[in-house]
Design brief:
- By secondary structure, the chain is α/β, with parallel strands linked by helices.
- It is built from 14 helices and eight strands.
- The strands form two sheets. The protein has a six-stranded parallel sheet, with helices on both faces.
Length: 389
């Protein structure tokens, strides 16, 4: 029962909350506004609305709109250089997990010298300490997937080394987050699926992690229940406002799970795949691995009670065995049309699976330390092989 709770982010949650941004005491007078290199935030009016809010608040900004899916360290370094050049005193991430995660990393590099990978504590990173306080971060999420608006974590890739790692410190919690489900109505069907399952796996993994707390358990089970009930509705009717709102809440709760517990090795196994194949959406990779991954956990019998509780949260009220959870997971994937994703469609070669298994265990060893049971390289390879299509 010993645990530390720390989530310092102020959250504006609900329909229309973006319109209240100008009423908040923002952490500076000049912002770097970070978005993706796509058209979504422009075409749907979210960028213009954010700009109007900043003008009403008396805040100037410079736009950095070059963030890609699975953002790379080079984007972080370019954004940080722009923030310094323009005298920005805080960072705003507008969009999904990619721009908000990138905003956190840009906030670090805007005040610290060297290269971003100098501070990375995994893989080829040099593990240098962050000596200067990052710039404050404001998160405006337009997706229900990563929960990054309510946690300190930022996941960045390094294309040169095919690495992808999570990283974070207390100062990379956003000081303010806007979670407005009206901004999520425009998310396409496929990305509603990928993002929704990403949020689900954050909560499932956080519930199984050996550092789970009574607080994270409450958040996790509520998020799991909300996703099981609402994700299929949001997938097949993107304008279902109630479903979008419930998914937005589940997403933020999953971020709180990340803040009070943590991801286990399913994420490590996926990060290796999307680190090597930038075109693979993170949530899609997790879906591909999930049945084999959680079946492996079930085989170990380290978490039988928790797997049963997760099955109950997903709607199987009479669940009695870990296998009931596996069936609930399969049922949800089928209900969302996500049960036939293929690694081969993203150029992942079966011949590299052993290499990926070894890389996951070495590069992301920290994630494996949070597992409820030991997973060997052989176990990881078995998960990859059973997941491969």
């Amino acid at each position: 029962m010993n645990f530390t709770y720390y989530i310092p982010t102020k959250i504006l949650f609900g329909r229309g909350q973006l319109g209240n941004l100008h009423k908040e005491k923002l952490p500076g007078k000049r912002a770097l506004l970070v978005t993706t290199n796509g058209r979504s935030v422009v075409d749907n009016g979210y960028l213009a609305r954010t700009q109007e809010e900043l003008a009403a608040a008396g805040v100037s900004y410079v736009l950095y709109n070059k963030i890609t899916a699975n953002p790379d360290r080079k984007e972080v370094m370019e954004g940080a250089a722009l923030a310094r050049k323009e005298g920005c005193d805080f960072i705003i991430g507008l969009g999904g997990g990619s721009p908000i995660d990138a905003s956190k990393s840009i906030a670090i590099m805007a005040t610290n010298g060297g290269d971003y990978w100098d501070y990375m504590t995994r893989g080829s990173g040099k593990g240098k300490p962050i000596t200067e306080k990052p710039l404050p971060i404001v998160a405006i999420t337009t997706t229900a997937g990563t929960g990054t608006e309510a946690d300190p974590w930022t996941v960045i890739s390094n294309a040169e080394t095919e690495e992808k790692f999570g990283f974070g410190i207390e100062e990379t919690f956003p000081v303010l987050a806007v979670v407005d489900p009206e901004l999520m109505l425009s998310v396409p069907k496929n990305y509603t699926i990928y993002q929704g399952f990403d949020a689900l796996f954050h909560s499932l993994e956080g519930y199984l992690a050996n550092i789970a707390t009574p607080i994270s358990d409450i958040y996790a089970l509520k998020a799991i229940s909300l996703i099981a009930q609402n994700l299929p509705l949001a997938v097949f009717d993107g304008n279902d406002m109630d479903a979008r709102e419930n998914m937005a809440l589940a997403n933020t709760l999953s971020g709180m799970v990340e803040s009070t517990s943590g991801c286990i090795s399913e994420h490590a196994l996926e990060h290796v795949l999307s680190g090597a194949h930038k075109n693979l959406p993170h949530g899609a990779g997790l879906i591909m691995l999930s049945v084999a991954y959680f079946s492996k956990i079930a085989e170990k019998h380290s978490s039988d009670e928790r797997l049963v509780e997760m099955a109950k949260a997903m709607g199987k009220k009479d669940a009695k065995t870990p296998e009931d959870f596996i069936e609930a997971l399969k049922d949800l994937q089928k209900a969302c049309g996500a049960d036939n994703l293929k690694m081969s469609d993203y150029g992942i070669e079966k011949s590299r699976l052993k290499e990926f298994a070894e890389a996951a265990k070495t590069q992301n060893a920290v994630s494996f330390l949070l597992d409820p049971c030991d997973l060997s390289v052989k176990d990881c390879l078995d998960i990859y092989e059973k997941s491969y299509k």
